[in-house]
Target: HSP40/DnaJ peptide-binding protein
Amino acid sequence: MSGRSSMPGGMGGMPGMGGTRRKTRGFDEDDDMNGSTFNFSNGMPNMPRAQTRSSTSSTPSEITRPLRVSLKELYSGTVKHLKVGRRLLNGSTEEKVYDIQIHPGWKSGTKVRFARAGNEQPNGEPQDLVFVVEEKPDETFSREGNDLVCRVPISLLDALTGVGGKKVVELLDGRKLQVSVPFGIVKPGQETTIPNEGMPIRKDGSVKSKGDLIVKWDVRFPDRLTPAQQEGLKGVLS
Model:
Protein backbone atom coordinates (compact mmCIF):
# COMPACT_ATOMS: atom_id res chain seq x y z
CA MET A 1 0.00 0.00 0.00
CA SER A 2 1.17 3.52 -0.64
CA GLY A 3 1.57 5.84 2.29
CA ARG A 4 0.83 9.52 2.58
CA SER A 5 2.66 12.06 4.69
CA SER A 6 1.97 15.74 5.21
CA MET A 7 4.21 18.76 5.42
CA PRO A 8 3.64 22.52 5.59
CA GLY A 9 3.89 24.66 2.47
CA GLY A 10 7.40 25.36 1.23
CA MET A 11 9.05 28.44 -0.20
CA GLY A 12 8.06 30.17 -2.08
CA GLY A 13 -14.89 30.83 -36.88
CA MET A 14 -16.51 31.75 -39.45
CA PRO A 15 -16.26 34.24 -42.42
CA GLY A 16 -18.63 37.15 -42.44
CA MET A 17 -19.28 40.82 -42.13
CA GLY A 18 -17.45 43.37 -40.03
CA GLY A 19 -16.61 42.03 -36.56
CA THR A 20 -17.49 43.50 -33.20
CA ARG A 21 -16.07 42.80 -29.77
CA ARG A 22 -17.98 41.99 -26.62
CA LYS A 23 -16.24 42.17 -23.27
CA THR A 24 -17.35 40.17 -20.26
CA ARG A 25 -16.72 40.00 -16.55
CA GLY A 26 -17.58 36.75 -14.83
CA PHE A 27 -19.03 36.34 -11.36
CA ASP A 28 -19.13 33.49 -8.89
CA GLU A 29 -21.94 31.96 -6.91
CA ASP A 30 -20.25 29.31 -4.81
CA ASP A 31 -17.12 27.24 -4.41
CA ASP A 32 -18.30 24.37 -6.62
CA MET A 33 -17.73 25.68 -10.13
CA ASN A 34 -18.28 22.36 -11.89
CA GLY A 35 -21.30 22.78 -14.14
CA SER A 36 -21.99 26.36 -13.00
CA THR A 37 -23.43 28.74 -15.59
CA PHE A 38 -22.67 32.44 -15.94
CA ASN A 39 -25.19 34.46 -17.92
CA PHE A 40 -24.47 37.63 -19.89
CA SER A 41 -26.72 40.06 -21.70
CA ASN A 42 -25.18 43.05 -23.45
CA GLY A 43 -21.85 42.14 -21.88
CA MET A 44 -23.10 42.12 -18.28
CA PRO A 45 -23.95 39.16 -16.04
CA ASN A 46 -27.62 38.61 -15.29
CA MET A 47 -29.93 36.12 -13.66
CA PRO A 48 -30.79 32.89 -15.49
CA ARG A 49 -33.71 33.36 -17.84
CA ALA A 50 -36.29 30.90 -19.06
CA GLN A 51 -35.33 28.97 -22.18
CA THR A 52 -37.88 29.18 -25.00
CA ARG A 53 -38.21 27.44 -28.33
CA SER A 54 -40.87 27.13 -30.96
CA SER A 55 -43.13 24.14 -30.45
CA THR A 56 -42.90 23.48 -34.19
CA SER A 57 -39.11 23.68 -34.42
CA SER A 58 -36.50 21.13 -33.39
CA THR A 59 -33.70 23.72 -33.43
CA PRO A 60 -31.99 23.88 -30.01
CA SER A 61 -32.44 27.12 -28.08
CA GLU A 62 -28.69 27.29 -27.50
CA ILE A 63 -25.49 26.65 -29.38
CA THR A 64 -22.38 25.52 -27.51
CA ARG A 65 -18.72 26.15 -28.20
CA PRO A 66 -15.75 24.60 -26.36
CA LEU A 67 -13.59 26.91 -24.27
CA ARG A 68 -10.26 25.11 -23.95
CA VAL A 69 -8.26 26.37 -20.98
CA SER A 70 -4.94 25.19 -19.58
CA LEU A 71 -4.61 24.10 -15.97
CA LYS A 72 -2.23 27.01 -15.44
CA GLU A 73 -4.90 29.44 -16.67
CA LEU A 74 -7.49 27.84 -14.40
CA TYR A 75 -5.05 28.25 -11.52
CA SER A 76 -4.10 31.90 -12.05
CA GLY A 77 -6.97 33.23 -14.18
CA THR A 78 -6.78 34.82 -17.61
CA VAL A 79 -8.84 36.42 -20.39
CA LYS A 80 -9.60 34.33 -23.48
CA HIS A 81 -10.40 35.96 -26.83
CA LEU A 82 -12.70 33.87 -29.02
CA LYS A 83 -13.97 34.81 -32.47
CA VAL A 84 -17.36 33.29 -33.26
CA GLY A 85 -19.63 33.71 -36.26
CA ARG A 86 -23.41 33.42 -36.23
CA ARG A 87 -25.94 33.03 -39.04
CA LEU A 88 -28.46 35.82 -39.60
CA LEU A 89 -31.93 35.46 -41.10
CA ASN A 90 -30.90 37.42 -44.21
CA GLY A 91 -28.37 34.69 -45.04
CA SER A 92 -25.26 36.61 -44.02
CA THR A 93 -22.86 35.86 -41.21
CA GLU A 94 -21.99 38.18 -38.35
CA GLU A 95 -18.67 37.74 -36.60
CA LYS A 96 -17.89 38.82 -33.04
CA VAL A 97 -14.94 38.53 -30.70
CA TYR A 98 -15.80 37.59 -27.13
CA ASP A 99 -13.41 38.45 -24.30
CA ILE A 100 -14.11 35.93 -21.54
CA GLN A 101 -12.53 36.34 -18.14
CA ILE A 102 -11.48 33.01 -16.64
CA HIS A 103 -11.44 33.17 -12.85
CA PRO A 104 -8.99 31.18 -10.70
CA GLY A 105 -10.54 27.91 -9.60
CA TRP A 106 -12.95 27.36 -12.49
CA LYS A 107 -13.42 23.72 -13.49
CA SER A 108 -14.23 21.72 -16.59
CA GLY A 109 -17.94 21.98 -17.30
CA THR A 110 -18.26 25.60 -16.17
CA LYS A 111 -20.51 27.42 -18.66
CA VAL A 112 -20.49 31.04 -19.82
CA ARG A 113 -23.77 31.99 -21.49
CA PHE A 114 -24.48 34.96 -23.77
CA ALA A 115 -28.21 35.47 -24.14
CA ARG A 116 -29.52 35.80 -27.72
CA ALA A 117 -25.98 35.86 -29.17
CA GLY A 118 -26.27 32.67 -31.24
CA ASN A 119 -27.77 31.96 -34.65
CA GLU A 120 -30.99 33.72 -35.58
CA GLN A 121 -33.86 31.24 -35.91
CA PRO A 122 -36.91 31.37 -38.22
CA ASN A 123 -39.18 31.85 -35.20
CA GLY A 124 -37.44 35.15 -34.47
CA GLU A 125 -35.78 33.95 -31.26
CA PRO A 126 -31.95 33.96 -31.49
CA GLN A 127 -30.17 31.09 -29.83
CA ASP A 128 -28.10 31.59 -26.71
CA LEU A 129 -24.35 31.20 -27.17
CA VAL A 130 -22.79 29.00 -24.49
CA PHE A 131 -19.06 28.46 -23.96
CA VAL A 132 -18.19 25.30 -22.00
CA VAL A 133 -14.84 25.13 -20.20
CA GLU A 134 -12.64 22.18 -21.18
CA GLU A 135 -9.44 21.66 -19.19
CA LYS A 136 -6.39 20.89 -21.32
CA PRO A 137 -3.99 18.22 -20.01
CA ASP A 138 -0.90 19.49 -18.20
CA GLU A 139 2.52 17.88 -18.55
CA THR A 140 3.31 18.01 -14.82
CA PHE A 141 0.10 18.26 -12.83
CA SER A 142 -3.28 16.58 -12.81
CA ARG A 143 -6.34 17.83 -10.97
CA GLU A 144 -8.38 15.82 -8.50
CA GLY A 145 -11.20 18.06 -7.33
CA ASN A 146 -9.44 20.99 -5.68
CA ASP A 147 -6.15 19.11 -5.25
CA LEU A 148 -3.17 19.09 -7.58
CA VAL A 149 -1.20 15.89 -8.10
CA CYS A 150 2.32 15.58 -9.48
CA ARG A 151 4.83 12.76 -9.74
CA VAL A 152 8.38 13.44 -8.59
CA PRO A 153 11.15 11.02 -9.59
CA ILE A 154 13.49 9.50 -7.02
CA SER A 155 16.26 6.98 -7.65
CA LEU A 156 15.99 3.44 -6.32
CA LEU A 157 19.13 4.03 -4.27
CA ASP A 158 17.65 7.08 -2.55
CA ALA A 159 14.34 5.27 -2.05
CA LEU A 160 16.07 2.36 -0.29
CA THR A 161 18.67 4.21 1.73
CA GLY A 162 16.32 6.80 3.22
CA VAL A 163 18.73 9.70 2.87
CA GLY A 164 15.93 12.27 2.92
CA GLY A 165 16.84 15.55 1.25
CA LYS A 166 14.61 17.81 -0.82
CA LYS A 167 13.19 17.92 -4.33
CA VAL A 168 12.12 21.12 -6.09
CA VAL A 169 8.64 21.29 -7.63
CA GLU A 170 7.82 24.27 -9.86
CA LEU A 171 4.20 25.24 -9.26
CA LEU A 172 1.68 26.51 -11.80
CA ASP A 173 2.34 30.13 -10.82
CA GLY A 174 6.11 29.73 -11.27
CA ARG A 175 7.03 29.47 -7.60
CA LYS A 176 9.57 26.79 -6.71
CA LEU A 177 8.56 24.64 -3.77
CA GLN A 178 11.06 22.51 -1.86
CA VAL A 179 9.48 19.20 -0.90
CA SER A 180 11.17 16.97 1.67
CA VAL A 181 11.78 13.38 0.65
CA PRO A 182 10.41 11.05 3.35
CA PHE A 183 12.98 9.39 5.59
CA GLY A 184 13.23 5.63 5.55
CA ILE A 185 12.30 3.41 2.64
CA VAL A 186 10.16 5.22 0.07
CA LYS A 187 7.69 2.92 -1.67
CA PRO A 188 6.58 3.50 -5.29
CA GLY A 189 3.52 5.74 -5.29
CA GLN A 190 4.02 6.87 -1.69
CA GLU A 191 2.54 10.33 -1.20
CA THR A 192 3.49 13.55 0.54
CA THR A 193 0.74 16.13 1.02
CA ILE A 194 1.46 19.87 1.15
CA PRO A 195 -1.61 21.73 2.43
CA ASN A 196 -2.94 24.86 0.72
CA GLU A 197 -0.82 24.50 -2.44
CA GLY A 198 -3.55 23.07 -4.68
CA MET A 199 -6.18 24.75 -6.85
CA PRO A 200 -7.90 27.95 -5.69
CA ILE A 201 -11.31 27.47 -4.06
CA ARG A 202 -13.77 30.28 -4.76
CA LYS A 203 -16.53 31.37 -2.41
CA ASP A 204 -18.76 34.43 -2.69
CA GLY A 205 -16.85 35.75 -5.69
CA SER A 206 -13.29 35.46 -4.41
CA VAL A 207 -10.64 32.89 -3.56
CA LYS A 208 -11.02 31.84 0.06
CA SER A 209 -8.61 28.91 0.25
CA LYS A 210 -6.76 26.32 -1.80
CA GLY A 211 -6.73 22.57 -2.06
CA ASP A 212 -3.66 20.44 -1.38
CA LEU A 213 -0.64 19.54 -3.46
CA ILE A 214 -0.09 15.78 -3.48
CA VAL A 215 3.39 14.62 -4.45
CA LYS A 216 3.58 10.99 -5.56
CA TRP A 217 7.09 9.60 -5.38
CA ASP A 218 8.04 7.90 -8.63
CA VAL A 219 10.77 5.40 -7.77
CA ARG A 220 12.98 4.89 -10.82
CA PHE A 221 14.32 1.38 -11.29
CA PRO A 222 17.47 0.72 -13.34
CA ASP A 223 17.07 -0.82 -16.79
CA ARG A 224 19.70 -3.48 -16.09
CA LEU A 225 22.18 -4.71 -13.50
CA THR A 226 25.60 -6.23 -13.99
CA PRO A 227 26.19 -9.73 -12.61
CA ALA A 228 28.29 -8.23 -9.83
CA GLN A 229 25.50 -5.81 -8.89
CA GLN A 230 22.99 -8.65 -8.89
CA GLU A 231 25.15 -10.69 -6.54
CA GLY A 232 25.66 -7.68 -4.31
CA LEU A 233 21.92 -7.09 -4.04
CA LYS A 234 21.32 -10.74 -3.25
CA GLY A 235 23.77 -10.48 -0.40
CA VAL A 236 22.10 -7.37 0.98
CA LEU A 237 18.46 -8.31 0.53
CA SER A 238 18.50 -12.03 1.24
Remarks:
- Residues 9-21, 23-35, 41-57 have pLDDT under 50 and may be disordered.
- The chain is about 10% helix and 40% strand.
- Residues 141-220 form a domain with the HSP40/DNAj peptide-binding domain fold (CATH 2.60.260.20).
- The CA atoms of residues 24 and 157 lie 54 Å apart.
